[in-house]
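Amino acid chain
________________
===
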Amino acid sequence: MFKQRRLRPLSIADVLIYAVMFLVILICFVPFLYMLALSLSSPSAIINNKVTLLPVGLNFQAYIQIFTYPNFFRAYGNTIFYTVGGTAIALFMSTIFAYAMSKRFLKGHKLVMRLIVFSMFFSGGLIPTYLLISSLHLTGTVWAILLPFAINQFNLIILINFFRAIPTEIEEAAIIDGLDYFGIFRRVILPLSTPALATIGLYTAVFFWNDWFNGLIYLNTDQYPVMLFLRNIVNGTAMVGDGAGSADKSTIAMSIKSAVIITSTLPIIILYPLLQRFFVAGLTVGSVKG
């Protein structure tokens, strides 16, 4: 017979932790819920300040307007391309670099590590970076977004430390079985690094999805990401549609801004729960015994 597991009574510390977590959830969730309510409320309800956390006078006109906006889906497609392509390139470049840097016996290892840490705190600045990308003839192309951000120093250090934490006995056993370092990296290291790769991939995807400033500097209008599209709407530099009727156009613009915020941030929010299970523990626990 299975023994019934007794639940431990909550202590004061547990109550405080749960209270702080609940407060953090409210701080993060309430603004998003308010934006959702604004995007689904009628103009009269917004004008009269009747909207709180639930929509008043259900209205989908804001979503209809942005979905019929000529550049919205193009910008959305651009963002998906930058996010998927940029994340794939960043993971490839970061993993091969980090695996090499995880080997302390390589000559020049300490010097390269110092350069990585130095470049994490000190960069060339905006103008030298722009001149470099321009001299490489990358401006006006998608490579201006994908290549300069292929390696992030912080993410690289995380991967280096993760690869160093993998027991060396695993690699030694693979070498005895006849694998070279490329085979070890592909068949052993990468399968064991799923939690780290998922974490770095999520960080990188969030960066590419939220980035708008680099698109403003390096890209043409038809290459703009959706966040830059959102920025133009928020600043009033993009047309938000005609036919506002008798309602105040500023109110209609507020509803459309809220709808764009919801549609542009919802996919990356959905991505978090899908990758959450990889953040708990690594896969190397218990892989080497004795």
User: Anything to note?
Assistant: DSSP finds 14 helices and no strands in the chain. The two ends are 33 Å apart (CA to CA).
